[in-house]
Amino acid sequence: xxSFQELARRVKLLIMDVDGVLTDGSIFISASGEELKAFNxxxxxxxKMLQSTGVKLAIITGRDAPGVAHRARGLGIxxxxxxxxxxxxxxxxxxxxxxxxxxxxAYIGDDVVDLPVMTRVGLAVxxxxxPSLVRQHAHYVTGASGGAGAVRELxxxxxxxxxxxxxxMARYLE
Length: 174
Prior knowledge:
Blueprint: H1 4-9, E1 13-16, E2 28-29, E3 35-36, H2 41-52, E4 56-60, H3 66-75, E5 79-81, H4 87-98, E6 105-109, H5 115-118, E7 123-126, H6 132-136, E8 140-141, H7 150-162, H8 165-172
Parallel strand pairs: 1-4, 1-6, 4-5, 6-7, 7-8
Antiparallel strand pairs: 2-3
Helix pairs in contact: 2-7
């Protein structure tokens, strides 16, 4: 089995679920029916840093919440798929669109609906709250929780594996 470092070195596209990954999985619903979610700014900055190194970003989410679309636009997410019930088919579409292979993709998820993608990509990642079956199919389980820095942890580990982290951090220390 290849190490995390070997798998992460090949990543050209990071694909993410939203609920339970970019958020803690809580969904607040206003009296008018609007969904509200809390996103971690550390995750957001980690995504921007990873993207600055040339890694593309994608979201595949089962829910279609306007707030998530707004956050995705604000982060400059390259590919955004919402209201998806067949994540496997969406992965195939994403690969066709980008010209990448599944081995060049990482995916971070938190539930069994993520397994059809996790079992196909080169680097599968789960958050610690994911059910046992999901964690068993992950190459890596983050120490940080979904919505509390899990994505930031992953972005930094990918950058470290690809040798881009130190140079990027040096910019902040100038």
